[in-house]
């Protein structure tokens, strides 16, 4: 990790830049795949699964036999861990269910807002370099709580043409019936437009690599909604002289091991911990099975030494990380100053991996600085909210004249007339 000591504010934007993507070339590749799947459905999905995943799958659906096999093959301790995660995620999200709001703005004018679940949702679960079965829970649990009528899960097959048993089990306990062995751009396209076997949905959720992210953004131009731009993973860690450098290194590496396009940032007020963190990174990195991925990620990662906690918070709010870990002695105080972050982890004993799995919060979060304007996945993500109003004769008499004046001022005569006719009838 490259170290920057007391960088000037004018340099922050440049120094905090994420790894650049060649979006034009990427979009062209992705768009060709999307158009092919729109035209050729399952045949095209099968072709791209063979090309990108190296397996020929004639039927992408997870059969009943495969579901039963998964239940037999999943380790009992892992099964118990998934159940605990399910329970906590369910509890946290159940409390977020929005309620109908009703108000009488003036006597005779009633307005209300009603949350209604999105009918069809597609959940993308990454599985290229690791089977992220935890993402099934994060996406499917709130979908089932909301009452979405159709929930579709797509995840890339492994070298044997199967899904990890934990992905299937997590889908089962979350109430998902439709699971498909399809990943990458082909999964996003299939859920967007439908194929002979994969249903079309109205909104797509889930993280992914740069190709999946590009596909999600492209289909929004074609009328499909998405949760957010969620690309390569990232974390920022805030530390001072009291922070445990072993914990810091483990938190940085927990994101770096996701993939070579991940980015990790350390911001500290203490020169004394920088060398120790770097040594600890080397020590811990050596024992990681995915150390080559993590090494590549660390090339795009940085350490910032700043003069004060105020600079620390200003810098991290400028970066707007997906995950923010505050490991300082005054973590609770600094947490109150967070403006831009996907999810915040407070104190020495709150690793980011808790939020990835079991604490209950959702791990599908905005990346690439989008935390400045996007929230992570939550219950509101699965609803649209429809407004209703009902006006009595007396209510229209109270607000009608104001409507007429405003409509006439905007030269929208028919708007004004729609009120005038009613008021005239009311006064007969």
Secondary structural class: alpha/beta
The value of Rg in angstroms is: 25 Å
> Helix amount, in percent?
40-55%
Query: What is the terminal-to-terminal distance?
Result: 80 Å
CATH superfamily annotation of the largest domain: Nitrogenase molybdenum iron protein domain
Under CATH, the topology of the largest domain can be stated as Rossmann fold
Major sheet characteristics? 6 strands, parallel
- Order the strands across the largest sheet as they lie in space: 1-11-10-9-12-13
Number of strands: 14
Q: In DSSP terms, counting alpha (H) and pi (I) runs of 4 or more, how many helices?
A: 16
Q: Uncertain regions: pLDDT < 50 for 5+ in a row?
A: none
Tally of discrete structural domains: 3
The CATH architecture assignment of the largest domain turns out to be: 3-Layer(aba) Sandwich
Strand content range: 15-25%
Q: What is the CATH top level name of the largest domain?
A: Alpha Beta
Summarize the structure.
The protein has helices at residues 12-15, 23-53, 64-73, 76-94, 134-146, 165-173, 184-193, 210-220, 245-256, 274-286, 291-299, 309-319, 331-335, 352-357, 393-409, 413-426; strands at residues 2-5, 101-106, 109-117, 120-124, 150-155, 178-181, 203-205, 225-226, 234-239, 263-268, 302-305, 323-326, 343-346, 383-391.
Q: Can you put this structure into words, describing what you see?
A:
There is one protein chain. The chain folds into three domains: 2-18 and 232-360, Rossmann fold, CATH 3.40.50.1980; 23-228, 3-Layer(aba) Sandwich (Rossmann fold); 392-426, no CATH class. The strands form three sheets. It has a six-stranded parallel β-sheet, sandwiched between helices. It is 45% helix and 17% strand. The mean pLDDT is 94. With 428 residues, the chain is an alpha/beta fold. The protein has helices at 12-15, 23-53, 64-73, 76-94, 134-146, 165-173, 184-193, 210-220, 245-256, 274-286, 291-299, 309-319, 331-335, 352-357, 393-409, 413-426; strands at 2-5, 101-106, 109-117, 120-124, 150-155, 178-181, 203-205, 225-226, 234-239, 263-268, 302-305, 323-326, 343-346, 383-391.
